Amino acid sequence: MAFLYGDGIWGGMESIKLFDEYNVAVCHPDYLAGKAPCTSNIAQCTLLQLSSRPSAWYEYFRQQDIRIEGTFVGPRFDTFHTSISAALLGYGIALVPLRLVAPELQSGSLVRAWSYAAKGRGAYYISYPLSLGNSHKVKVIVEWISTYLQHSNDPKQDMECVR
């Protein structure tokens, strides 16, 4: 079994959608001090990049109908975790899945640089080979995860965080 991000279609695999992804721009609370808190100050900001998603910032701004000329210059990181760590240290603005920074946003150790939450192109899935579909172990894990998500995820909470 695997947890995968994408469109849910993988050859020879059964996939069950767990949840959508919403990406938010976050930074240390002091990072935007002295800067206008709007997308008009992009040139003044260091946008932290994720190596595996080179067009993420373009997509974020495109969804808002904001045209950006040229390329973004900023440090590139291999994982969301390292990008979030850099934002926590005040090095710039990270574009990361809301679910990964919800605790930091709640505690105030990170703030949203801009209010927009971009819906990702994919979603998160649990996937397993079709040949294991009748396996007791697979059924138990899928049932446990489904029950956990039903009790721990309040769709209203996700939508409030997105707004």
Can you describe this structure?
There is one protein chain. With 163 residues, the chain is α/β, with parallel strands linked by helices. It has helices at 56-62, 80-88, 98-107, 136-152, 155-162; strands at residues 2-6, 13-27, 47-50, 76-77, 93-97, 111-129. The chain has a six-stranded mixed sheet, with helices on both faces. It is elongated. Mean pLDDT is 88; it is low at 155-160.
What attributes characterize this protein structure?
alpha/beta; six-stranded mixed sheet; 163 residues; elongated
Q: What gap, in angstroms, lies between the N and C termini? A: 33 Å
Largest sheet: 6 strands, mixed
Taking all Cα atoms into account, the compactness measure Rg is 18 Å
* Spatial shape: elongated
**Total number of strands:** 6
Q: Helix-strand pattern, N to C? A: EEEHEHEHEHH
Q: Please state roughly what percent of the residues sit in beta strands, choosing from under 5%, 5-15%, 15-25%, 25-35%, 35-45% or over 45%.
A: 25-35%
Give the mean pLDDT: 88
The residue fraction in helices comes out at: 25-40%
Number of helices: 5
Strand order of the largest sheet: 1-6-2-5-3-4
Structural class: alpha/beta
Task: List segments where confidence is low: pLDDT < 50 over at least 5 consecutive residues.
Answer: 155-160
